[in-house]
Fold this sequence. Notes:
Layout: E1 5-10, E2 15-18, H1 38-48, E3 56-60, E4 64-68, E5 72-78, E6 81-85, E7 88-90, E8 96-98, E9 104-109, E10 114-119, E11 150-152, E12 175-181, H2 190-196, E13 201-203, E14 211-215, E15 230-231, E16 236-238, E17 246-248, E18 255-256, E19 260-264, H3 269-273, E20 280-285
Parallel strand pairs: 12-20
Antiparallel strand pairs: 1-4, 1-11, 2-3, 3-10, 4-9, 5-8, 5-10, 6-7, 6-9, 12-19, 13-14, 13-20, 14-17, 15-18, 16-17, 16-19
Amino acid sequence: MTDRALSVVRSGALTTVQDLGRPGHAHLGVPRSGALDGPAAALVNRLVGNAPEAAVLESTLNGCALRPRSEVTVAVGGAPCRVAVDGRPVAWGAAVRVPAGALLDVGAAVSGVRTYVAVSGGIAVEPVLGSRSTDLLSGLGPPPLTDGTVLPLGRPTQLHARVDVAPQPAPPAELVLRVTPGPRDDWFTPAAVRAFTSRPYRVSAASNRIGLRTEGPALERVLTRELPSEGVVLGAVQVPPDGRPVVFLADHPTTGGYPVIAVVRAADLPAAAQAVPGTPVRFVAVRRR
Length: 289
């Protein structure tokens, strides 16, 4: 049995393996998936000397606990949290040495939602369609972690970063999402279109990796007939029958039968990954490029 492995002692509420995702398969009905907070995942990989495509762990809200079989270098980033090795506090946002058999405890998020754990060599589960990402919608990739899961690790190829702490953006106090109107904004009343970009919304507790759901003004449709299922993209803002906008995230379906009122700029989506329930949301219309 290889010593390049990681045992899951506490899996937490939801911890999954994520990398850059599997783009390019939408025509097969396969979502992109991948880390919701891409910049946070990329940073922790850099801190431990991993390649950008290396797989990391994405933990939701209450963290996880891991025990390596050999000495590894780890970095924890994304949502700020307490980090300890065998009960001793260690740095968040920096490369940390974890001896063989020691317990790495990644605590609950102090703010934000998703914490990322990179391990030197990367999580080396078997790739599916070129990615090691867990896709909660389609079931592709490894299942969400459970207590007792053993994860294989790759071999380190580079030295870890020599920094005390790497700066990271704070989770948003207000989530500002720039949107390009369309393609189905004409399915809504003029008053609804105005309300969408002028009225306040909040992040719903029903949000997940598939979509960020909102609470706020219901958007009234001028066309109420059914819409044939059509392709939807990352960041599409779909409006279901209750009238509350849903922002599609990494595990979104590739087609949908509700009208898409706008599409969020990709650069604004990582902040959505860290917006806790109740966070104010503001949609800001921008011109088409």
